[in-house]
Structure formats: structure tokens, C-alpha cells
TrEMBL record:
Pfam family, one: OmpA
Keyword Nucleus: no
Protein name: OmpA family protein
Transmembrane segments: 21-42
Organism domain of life: Bacteria
Record's subcellular location: Cell outer membrane
Positions of the OmpA-like domain: 254-377
Source lineage: Bacteria, Bacillati, Actinomycetota, Actinomycetes, Streptosporangiales
Chain residue ranges for the region called Disordered: 1-20, 44-63, 190-218, 288-310, 337-412
Composition-biased stretches (Gly residues): 44-57
Amino acid sequence: MHGSRTRTDAPNGRHRPRRGTLALVSLPLTAALVLTGCSLLPGGDGGGDGGGDGGSGPTVPEGGFVQEGYVGKWDTHLKARVEIAEVARLGDRTRTTVEFTSLEDGPVDVEQNIFSSHAAAARTISQFQLIDTVRQHMYGVYTDLGTRLPRFSEDQWIPGVTYEIVVFSPPLEEGVDTVTVRAPGGIGEFAGVPVVDGEPKDYPTEPPEEAPSEGDTFTYPVATGDPEPLDVEKGYLELTGSTVGVVQRREADTERETVALRTDVLFEFDKAAVNDEAANVLKDVVEETRERADPEKPPITITGHTDGIGDDAYNQELSEERAEAVKDILEDGLGSGYEYETVGKGSSDPVRSEGGDDDGEARAANRRVEISYAFKDDAVTETETAEEGEEEIGRTDPEEVAGPGTFHSHAGLEPVASEEGVAQPYVGADKRTWSIEVYPFYRDGAFLVTRFAIAHDGERLARTDSPLSSGFGDFPFSVTDPATGTTYIDVKADREDTHFAAIGAGPFPPTRQKDTLQYGYYYVPAPPPEVDSVTFNAGPFGTFEDVPIEE
């Protein structure tokens, strides 16, 4: 059973467990390459903090805002150096200038647009989006303006050439002087980019007659007219975060109460052992069971359930083992005054239908362990059903956000953990072994940025593969605060097309080649400020404890 989704603002910078529509904002990827050598440093002594008033202003890292990684999709990709040269206010719009340099050994056809999420031959750039991580807004991109890439030409991305790319987005709200630029593919995120006051520039309207050579700076035509209105109010989408607690749902009839627990909080992927942190989270469940369950009306029944992925016999065994694991914790906590029975139902009793657009959410809801008992006479006075453990969608009050994040390069990162797992991109696909490296996380405004790199063995992926359900920024990952059991699931923009809603690396993976480590990131709501490490739930790769949160 699945209750209606709701949404509330979360005070004090914290999110309460609940589920509702995810708000995803279309981010303008600030990819504009500056030929005039403009500086990212704001005039004077700096601006505010991107949220409320005050702050000492954003700082520019030594060496600039530079990331390297793979960008592209399907069979067209390249490794590149990307520098955010400028994010500038221009009155009725915001200009992002990006300097883009191919690091490949040879040329790559420009016709195959590596900056578009859609048609390969499109001239427009739909990525390089801007995020205000304090107000939790993602700005759209004027795809009818900015750099116009050639179609059906013989142009190529030449290694060693600096290409100036210009992206226009709606005007930023007043007071926003720091943004995060969301670059495509495995380039990564650019947090802490300052916003400067810009001036109009003259750009070419026709491509240069001669192809560039290594060491040149090259500018394709840039459209600068009046933009077509965006289909988003105020030019941005609101971003909301999803969190859940260990209790997924509770139901009661006239005699018995059933409490459903989320197995994703209690168990590692494909495992049946409850770790120490999850056992600690269950202490509240044990105490509640003591208060409400009537030992004179046995038994307490613990029933395990799985999702529909995998072999029926395997799922049956896993559900039985997980039921036994929860029973052991209840028995240890409640003592010998209760009788228990365990049942495993595998995937035979789902609460939601799998295989739809929300397949990931449906499968997560079906993975559960239910505790059912006859309640004491004074525990429940009427029939009740509550979905208190449903995902909660919320936004943090910007006044409670400490400020935007600072730039974190992913060059030379040392992993804090690594593992191999098996992912099945879609039903019927060949399974491949995937490896992951996990890097320290960091806070960016109201959000936490999870960072990792993924590679796979075997043959090259097919064009239709979307491994880990991560084609456009969505990953089957989450973060848990081990002290409270609260799980932080995702950050999404408020848009009808939820396929493109999550804030993460996308398209992903940008290259389908095997044995190629590719950087990725995924935004989740930030846990309370005092939390300095979390558990990373990495889907098929398992669970990684004590992942540090950097400043």
C-alpha cells in the first residue's frame, strides 16, 4: 500500500522523514570560455554567501575552477579539461563561459554533440546548468541562445585547442553571488563559483574559415538575441530532498498491528546480517514493541520480503534469513516473555507494482521486514493506518543554511573505500562486474555531495544500456546517519519529466568503454551540521561505513 505524497519545509536545516513529489530544477551548465581573460574574482572585497546577507565572499582556487573527466554519451565521448572562466550577470540573463580542451590523442567529430542529452546532431547545448544550493534553485538554460555547434560538418574537437563555449540562463535572484555549475558526464560539479557583473560581448556569427591548431583559442558562433521563454516559473525549478526513517509503514486493525521496516536501512545489498549501527537504530522499534505488543497473545510474527529482481528461490531464502535476523534482535531486546515466528515470502507479496517509471522507488518499498503482533488493550483504540515512514520531501529554510560549498577538485583523490559488485542495467542485459571507488563527501549549501568513480569489465556497453539506472543523474545510492537511522535519498527538481530530475552526474556513464574509471557525483539532503561521517549505501556495491564529510 502506498499513501499519498506530501511535502513540507523542514526547519532548522534538517529534513524529517516523508515522501512526496521530487522537485528537480533544470540547471544551466555554466560552460562559457572566456577569451578576454576576465576574472572570476568579484569587484571590491567580495560578495555575500549566496544565501542570506553577510559572508566574506567566494574565493577562487589556485589554478582556477578546473576539472578533468569524460564527457559524451553512447559511442561519442572524449576526455577533456573544463574550466569555468566566468559566471556573469547581464541584466536580463546570466552568462556562463567555459573553456573546453580535449585531452584525447586524436580528433573527435563535433557533429556528435557531446553537450546534448538528446539528439546527437543537435546544435544546442542543453547542459552546464547553474544551481543556487542555498535557496535550493536550479536554473534553466536558454537553448536557443549561446554557442551554436555545427551540424553535418567535418569539424572536429582538436586536442590542445581551447574552445570557448557560452551558455545563457535566466537572471539569478538578487543576492546570489555564488553558484554551483553542473557539468555534463564525468567532468564533475563546480561548487563555489562566484558571480560577477558582466558586460555584453561581441561574438562571431559565422564559424571561422580555418580550422584551429593546437594552442589556439577557438570560438564557434554565439546567438545573443532575445531568448524564447522557458517553461519554468521565474527561470528556475525548486529542489527538494527526500529522506526516510527505518519505519516504512504501520497498519492496525481491531486486533493486530503491523510495522514495516525498510531493509535498505538495516541490511547491506544482498546481505542478511544486521550491522551494529542498524541494530542500534532498531532500539526504538524494540521499545515500541515492548510497549504495544501483548505477550499474552502470541506470537510476534516477523515476515521478510524482497523485490522482484533475481531468482525466486534466492529471494525466498534471503527473505527468510532477514526475518530471522530481525527476530534475533527483538528477542535479545524483549527477553524470553514473548513467543516468535518467522516467515519468508520472497517477492510474492509486493506492496507496489514494479516495472514502471518509478521502478526504483517501488522495489525499495517492496524490500521490507514486517513485525506483526496482537496489541495490548490500551495501545490502540481504533483502526489505524499510518505511512509515517514514507519518504519525506522537504526543503531547508535558506536562513538555516550555513552557506554555499567551496570548490572541490576530484583530481588525484584518494579513495576511502572501494569494492566490486554486479549490476544489471536492465532486464535481459548481460551482467558485468563493476568496481567503485568512494571519495570523501562534502557539503554544498543545503546538500551533501557524494563522490565516487565507477568502471566495468567485459565488453563495451551497448548504446541502450543504463547501468545502475543512472542515465541522467539518478543513482540507486543513498546516505544514512548511523546515529539516527535517517536515510538521505536524493535531491530532485520539480519537473514533470522525473527521468531527468535527480541532481547527479549525467549522462552517465559518459563513455561505454571497459576498464575506464569515470568520476560521478550524487546530491542528497545534508545531514545535521554535527554529523561528520555517514554510511554510504551504494546499491550493488554494498554499504560503506564511516565515509568522512569534508569541510
